[in-house]
Amino acid sequence: MGKLAGKVAVVTGASKGIGAAIARSLAAEGASVVVNYASSKAGADAVVSAITAAGGKAVSVGGDVSKAADAQGIINTAVETYGRLDILVNNSGVFEFAPIEEFTEAQYRKQFDINVLGVLLTTQAAVKHLGEGASIINVSSVVTTVTPPTTAVYSGTKGAVDAITGVLARELGPRKIRVNAINPGIIETEGAHAIGVIGSDFESHTVSQTPLGRVGQPDDIASAVVFLASDDAKWLTGEHIVASGGLR
Ligand code: NAP
């Protein structure tokens, strides 16, 4: 029996990339998984098909985490389909990099709306359904400590996620709900390809600074998320696991 048997999980932004790997890994450990997408229904449905083909349980649901009604709808899908909620993975996120002279208000609002407000709204919708032993995992980034040039807006959003993680660990600790963050280094995803990180000088410089000498793959993050979701991490809350091959 998997270590998450009987648990119900929501993974936001699970139509591709890191979120898709997290959804598959949680399901492989026995969790029933709600696979959220914003625009890629086909991607989310493919993740659901892979999970069910492997004998697991999953459903997909559309929704923009930066809209309160949508965030509520994502959480309602878990409760209506599986009757409970134990694990929330706030993974949805967008990244756009620009020098300080060039960033736009639109870039700021999009990234803060999805990366920060989305975490707050989805957690707000979820928390009334979470009980003792529940786990919230926020996908942050190593950028909050590495602080690479041109990432002021994006790193600002993830700095907020780190702070929110600490606050909610204290606020929800008395209810025995754990709240942790995982802070990946560069991970080879559709999103990382789309903005040109993969194959760039930034990638090769980052790899040169990474003790394990490569960029990460989505499964490198998914296994750490399974750990945080499980009772193996029952004494961890308010932690930030830097999953970056040693990059600091
Ligand atoms: P990705 O390949 O671009 O996938 C992003 C996911 O987020 C997609 O499923 C997308 O859904 C979803 N999404 C976007 N806007 C959304 C919204 N408004 N509401 C709900 N879902 C939304 O990205 P990724 O590289 O896997 O990144 C996942 C997370 O890891 C992000 O929080 C990112 O900041 C973080 N991270 C990534 C890296 C990296 O190097 N890749 C490093 C550190 C941290 P649709 O496709 O359906 O629109």
Provide an overview of this structure:
The protein has about 250 residues and is α/β, with parallel strands linked by helices. The chain has one domain: Rossmann fold. It contains nine helices and seven strands. A seven-stranded parallel beta sheet has the order 3-2-1-4-5-6-7, sandwiched between helices. Strand 4, helix 4 and strand 5 form a beta-alpha-beta unit. The termini are far apart. The site of NADP nicotinamide-adenine-dinucleotide phosphate has 33 residues, from helix 1, strand 2, helix 4 and helix 7.
Task: Give me the strand/helix succession.
Answer: EHEHEHEHEHHEHHHE
Q: What number of structural domains do the residues give? A: 1
| Count of helical regions | 9
Quaternary structure classification: single chain
Sheet having the most strands: 7 strands, parallel
Q: Give me the CATH fold name.
A: Rossmann fold
**Distance between the ends:** 36 Å
CATH second-level architecture: 3-Layer(aba) Sandwich
What overall form do the CA principal axes indicate?
globular
Count of DSSP E strands?
7
What is the CATH first-level class name?
Alpha Beta
Tell me, rounded to a whole number, the average pLDDT. 98
> Low-confidence parts lasting 5 or more residues at pLDDT below 50?
none
Helix content: 40-55%
In CATH terms, the superfamily is NAD(P)-binding Rossmann-like Domain
Give a short summary of the structure.
This protein has 248 residues and is α/β, with parallel strands linked by helices.
Provide the fold topology:
Layout: E1 8-11, H1 17-28, E2 32-37, H2 41-53, E3 57-62, H3 68-82, E4 87-90, H4 105-127, E5 135-139, H5 143-146, H6 152-172, E6 178-184, H7 190-194, H8 201-208, H9 218-229, E7 240-243
Parallel strand pairs: 1-2, 1-4, 2-3, 4-5, 5-6, 6-7
Helix pairs in contact: 1-2, 1-9, 3-4, 4-6
